[in-house]
């Protein structure tokens, strides 16, 4: 089935691009958690850019807190 988006982590492209420009205290880029997302419907019928915040399954809450801008959204 592939990945399934759960929750309201969808963000507008302009917001995503702004987050990608910002720095974090730990030095890691926001591109680790701010990623483009596409599904079959978007690929075939509505090819608009869609972005999500994805902290993954293995990241702890403490680690996620270091991504200031994405976490505050």
Describe this structure in words.
The chain is built from 4 helices and 3 strands; from the N terminus they run βαβαβαα. Strands 1-3-2 form a 3-stranded antiparallel beta sheet. The model has no long low-confidence stretch (mean pLDDT 84). Helices cover 33% and strands 11% of the residues. It is α+β, with helices and mostly antiparallel strands. It starts with 9 loop residues before the first strand and ends with a helix.
Entry keywords:
single chain, 73 residues, alpha+beta, 3-stranded antiparallel beta sheet, 3 strands, 33% helix
Describe the secondary-structure layout.
Elements: E1 10-11, H1 13-21, E2 34-36, H2 40-44, E3 51-53, H3 61-65, H4 68-72
Short structural description:
The protein is an alpha+beta fold and 73 residues long. Helices cover 33% and strands 11% of the residues. It has a three-stranded antiparallel sheet.
Find the structural class using helix and strand composition: alpha+beta
Number of helices: 4
Total DSSP E strands: 3
**General shape:** globular
Helix and strand succession? EHEHEHH
Mean pLDDT: 84
Based on CA atoms alone, the radius of gyration comes out at 13 Å
The parts where pLDDT drops under 50 for at least 5 residues are: none
**Share of β-strand residues:** 5-15%
Q: State the end-to-end CA separation.
A: 28 Å
Helix content: 25-40%
**Integer tally of domains:** 1
Order of adjacent strands in the largest pleated sheet: 1-3-2
Q: What kind of sheet is the major sheet?
A: 3 strands, antiparallel
């Amino acid at each position: 089935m592939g990945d399934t988006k759960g929750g309201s982590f969808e963000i507008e492209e302009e917001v995503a691009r702004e987050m990608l420009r910002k720095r974090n205290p730990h030095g890691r880029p926001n591109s680790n958690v701010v990623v483009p997302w596409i599904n079959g419907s978007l690929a075939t019928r509505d090819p608009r850019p869609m972005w999500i915040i994805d902290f993954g399954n293995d990241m702890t809450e403490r680690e996620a807190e270091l991504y200031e801008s994405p976490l505050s959204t």
